[in-house]
Amino acid sequence: MSEHHHGHEDDHGHHHHDNHFTDMEARVKALETVLTEKGLIDPAAIDAIVETYETKVGPRNGARVVARAWSDADFADWLKRDATAAIASLGFTGRQGEHMRAVFNTPDTHNLIVCTLCSCYPWAVLGLPPVWYKAPPYRSRAVIDPRGVLAEFGLELPEAKQIRVWDSTAELRYIVVPERPGGTEGLGEEALADLVTRDSMIGTGLALSPEAAR
Ligand code: FE
Fold this sequence. Notes:
Bound molecules: fe (iii) ion
Number of domains: 1
């Protein structure tokens, strides 16, 4: 099991997931079924809560990191050199041994994050990974055909723009710093953070324009 797991350490529980998660998922499903049958929960409500954590609560930390980088050139430099420390300075820390690297989108280069072998994800800044991030189609195709994958997310990049794909591991996880949208010169960090979507920090989307965020 561990041989095909790019040298992941044993203390990263989610890397034993092939069996572990299947078992966990079966138990969760069983609990959900019993509770639903007893009328104690509404599966739609559970989905809504999970969705909220995936898209809103968790990624707010990362959005604050990006907004700070957009607002403060010194912080952006620090984030480039030592993302683990720069991110920790805002109070967001991962488990021991988990290092962060921030990759910055530029007019020439778009960055995309994947974990080809499992589901390594920057939990401290993005919260729960979306289901598609953990799914084999994304994990395999993000490397082979990143442009095609991005198109399926509705993101059509100019042919001239290079796409760099970063393969996460348990030891090193990535966050994309999207390009700062135009028309945001007067905005403070809080307002800027509202433009930073989860997908823009994975690379499957861009930051929102102020108009789109309204
Ligand atoms: Fe992984």
